[in-house]
Write a structure and sequence with these properties.
Elements (H helix, E strand, L loop, with lengths): L15 H15 L6 H6 L3 H16 L5 H15 L2 H13 L4 H9 L9 H4 L5 H16 L4 H9 L4 H24 L12 H8 L1
Length: about 200
Amino acid sequence: MRLPYAPNTPPTGDDAADTAGIYARIAARRNPRPLIPLDLALLHSPPVADGWNSFLGAIRTRTVVDSGILELAVCRVAVLNGAVYEWDSHAPLALKAGIKPEELQAARTLPCTAEGDLAQLDSSPLSSRQRAVLRYTDQMTRTIKVEDEVFAQLQTAGFNHREIVELTTGIAGYNCVSRVLVALDVGENNHREMKSVDELVAALK
């Protein structure tokens, strides 16, 4: 990483009690895993790490949108932003959540649809719901402004208001994650290639 990682345990000092509480809240969400490199990057600013943990924790544990759909969107964000750490972390979660290998491969390889390049998307193995999410993710990530037609596809695909808000905040949140990961080179992944779908499938067997 471009900075040294923060310590795994809270430092002592004038605000030690507050900082210890922040460490404890992050550790509770990660349990039974230890703190991850992203946590140890953010913990240089404990208040920021605390807010981050609350926001991303809500997206990951308190939403109703289908977890496979959400992970597919996160993986697409990782591909568009070149966030190796994010792809390698979330692509296995997408497979575990029911995304088929060929669908994950489509998210990995399809050209960006933000400017309307839809030929390969239309012939891909993605379902109509997945295509709607991929187009929404592409526009949110690349052009920021989402066309009315692209937004309407989410509604046509059957997503309700809560699911659309959760999907939108999930895509936005993981765009934020990817930008931090890449800017600071968290996990020292920027020079690496993303794991292939075949590698990921084999690792899950």
